[in-house]
Amino acid sequence: MNPTHPLAGRPAPASILVNVPKLVTAYYALRPDPTIAAHRVSFGTSGHRGSSLKHAFNEVHILALTQAICSYRKAHGTSGPLFVGWDTHALSEPARATMLEVLAANGVDVMIDALDRPTPTPVVSRAIVAYNTGRSDGLADGIVVTPSHNPPEYGGYKYDPPSGGPADSTVTGEIGAMANALIRDGLRSVERVTFEQALRAPTTRRFDYVDAYVRDLAAAIDFDVLRGSRLKVGVDPLGGASLDYWEPIATRYGLGLKVVNDAIDPTFAFMTVDWDGSIRMDPSSAFAMGRLIGLRDQFDLAFANDPDADRHGIVCPSAGLMSPNQYLAVCVDYLFRHRPRWKAETAVGKTVVSSSMIDRVAARVGRRLFEVPVGFKYFVEGLLDRSLGFCGEESAGASLLCLDGSTWVTDKDGIVMGLLALEIRERLGRDPAEHYRTLTRELGDPAYERIDTEATADQKRALENLSARSFVLTELAGDPVTAILTNAAGDGHPIGGVKVVTDHGWFAARPSGTEAVYKLYAESFKGVDHLRRIQDEARAALHDVLSAK
Q: Is the pTM above the cut of 0.90?
């Protein structure tokens, strides 16, 4: 496993807090050099991200990206309103101001929050889906300014086309190429007005995101189950955009929710330090979730979201923080038994690096499994055409269909995933962790782990372009290899690495997009010792292949 930092799990000391004035100054003062790869616009699995201090997320990037999106919308006939959101990272506010200046200058109809509240990723997705339902033209799309769960010094920017979910590689490739061309050309083609002019523009409109989303929640969560519930529930927004949503949710649906932390602080000084010594608002990390885990005995259930509320963390009195894989398995078992209006052919979506426990639960409930590469964008089409009832990834992102089988959102929704845990707890009379233990007694109790291994740029490229034919492995940890995959079994898209499968375990390896490492995921249904054998043999096999490159 990865080594942990001495500060891991401890309150963040002042010495590691980001200097917000310096960070914002760098956003305006530093200009990226387009000849340096790290300075260019680059879309990862979920948008362009980086730090202004490293020339990776600066005003130049946002000017170019927003102008590129305006050009893309015009070229593709997207003429409806553009719903925008942003989170509570320090760079989100200046970036959203820059974005609005360009959108107004280009005459784009923009929907900003009625009270200038931060707006979470799933709320923007819901607004797009709801607006576009029943329409064939004049479709809406969206932008969310967020680096998700990443550290306080990061900024992020992602585009949602009319599908309402993360843009696919074709779309981001086109937008990214236009943005980088604009930067190389000195931004001469960027249209812009002042921020004051943007706010006064007739195309900049106010929209009550909170009321619309909270009202619509009854389409996705069975609140009839929760009527009269006496459960005590703790919620930690982790200083993020979901804060303004929980009180209206509790009031509207009569829930016993208590927000345990209402601080909004761009340094995120209230966090406990993550495994590597960084402040990271990751609700799937036991180190980052230390404060909420410490409160678990005060509540029947507790949950948290990251700053843009697309991820979830579920804390149960019986077990503390559930791993995302465990909760996803519980959700599959629960939803496909308690959503009678979903079609019989509706499938389960998962990423290639998520637990095979999900495969076993899907088989148990008689549903087809649809496995895709890492990235929620691969689920968008299935959620939109309603062929996927539930989709999840090991990094704590998931979404589902409405109670009637219609589309809820096409992006990750951490708010709904927290409320679903409450529905499960109330209906089953046991918390999700207790239900997971009942599943393991029937289906096995897997050991799962992700570790990072150093890799050069050449080795990372070789891993990303590996073919199944070039990776020869007939046995893994004493079991015959049943599959070597470089393309996902569900949609056939390249996984950007390799996955090796046996009847009792598997491993997958993918290069990191930002660090000089590759990520090794592994799982065993024979216990921790067997998992270690899988990891050791995987690293040896990968070393042999990558050393030849």
A: yes
